Structure prediction request, 560 residues.
Amino acid sequence: METKGLKPFSVLLRAVRNVTCSAILGVCAVGSVAFAANPLTTDFYSADAAALVHNDSLFIFAGHDEQGPQGNNNKAFIMNDWHVLVTDDMEHYHDYGAVLSVKTFKWANASAFAGHCEYRNGKFYWYVAVHHGTIKENGSEGFAIGVAVADHPSGPWKDAIGQALITDNTPNDVKLNIDPAIFYDGDDIWMYWGSWNAGRRVKLKENMIELAGTPEDIKIKDFFEAPWMHYFRGNYYFSYASGYPSTTNYSMAPSLNGPWTQKGVINDKMDNSETNHQAIFKYLGHWYFMYHGANSPGGWTYRRSVNIDYLYYDRDGLIQKIKHTNGVDPVNNALIEEGGYRMVVSHSNLALEDYDGIVVQQTADENNESQLWVLAHGEKSRYYTLKNFATGRYYCPSKTLLDTVSTKSTPCEIRIENASKEKGYYLFADYDSDYLADVLNISKDVGMPLITWVRTGTDNQKIKLVKAELPKVEPPEDSGNGGTTGLEMARAVGALPARFAVYDGAARVIRLGAEASWTLLDVNGVVVRCGYGREIQVRSVRSGMYFVRTANAIAKVLVK
Prediction:
């Protein structure tokens, strides 16, 4: 759902890239733009970031470390405000600046610790941990969780309820009420939080600013702090910081109520940073792992910086160990234009061809129209159909791992997302399960088929869509179309430039020029039947009613 009156981020970004103070959305002191690399920005020290995908943009809600250089007198977190960054290409990150601070909450007096923002009921709700000005029990640090609300992540933000949502007076709270994380499972809205080896969860009311129950123990072994919940392929994943200095671990369960099975470490201890705080999210077909390290100049435990790397699952849904890199690849989130394309596999530079109903990689040949595909928009955003121009058949992947990708006579919508600006697209067989097209064995051999496999990020899964002009096609006689474009005709029949087959009305036979494997299609491109030979028996035919496909040719049926 698009926020009313709000321009897409890509439009705003162009307007503010070189601006230092802007009235856009009522926010001044607009920050500079960082570029794709780890850490995301060196303009300020950042930590404890949470992610929110909204309207095809990725918003990052980050804490701000203000501690000085490493030294014995600087061993404390100094944090007074939070920044919001946004990107729509994983390359340019626009910083809206310090849009929320401790001062927003009149009842708070210090410490802008980790938070999490969620969109609900047309508003953005940002849950953050701060020191309460008056409520502090013996043995605790006096932390509370507040809620800010805004019409847009850039603000202006205000205290949603004028008091804390969680304090030391909340029944069954913990001694350190920090690190809130929100999870919506389709029925209920849950908030998780905690530290010092004690975690809690509580159900929220639909209004997002009231508790709907009493906090419960999360009962996760080895939990220290930094809870994060996500769902994937039929399982719930609870990730968290474990131990101190911390690793990031995770557990899995078939339901939010468990039973939870520990699966181990996915992010090792960070160099020169004792804390580990993660966010796991899916954006434009990629799963990402966001975390902080001490990899900015002058960075250390109390001067951290946010990084993003890829997250991958194996065929059993287990999370693979995170590999720290210099940054993820830039992507393009624009919808793909309809029209003709040649699909080239990034790792082999071979073209994808419909070969006897199986999609295989072959030596690229611009004259081979079995390598020409017609892309059209599906009913849902980012879903498309791919129709082979020569065969008239549709790209239809199986959702079963290791099955070859076949073509069929009826349309199959698939999700297509940009894998990399440079290396192409992911063709998903099952978007929710992370199954997509993969050249078998990462082979560069001609004739190797596409199969369905889990997303691994390797280049044999990245397909370049190279724009290609569709040949002009002669329309059927008496169609009333006049001249028609290749795209218009391909949508109807998937035809090559018309050749001719002859219908003998007396014998009720369509005669071909030679024996061949043939496919009889009606004027809408629907396959009537297939066979082999030089004659096709039919009941009746009229000019322009049928087309016959043989090898790489389409013949329009002429009546004698």
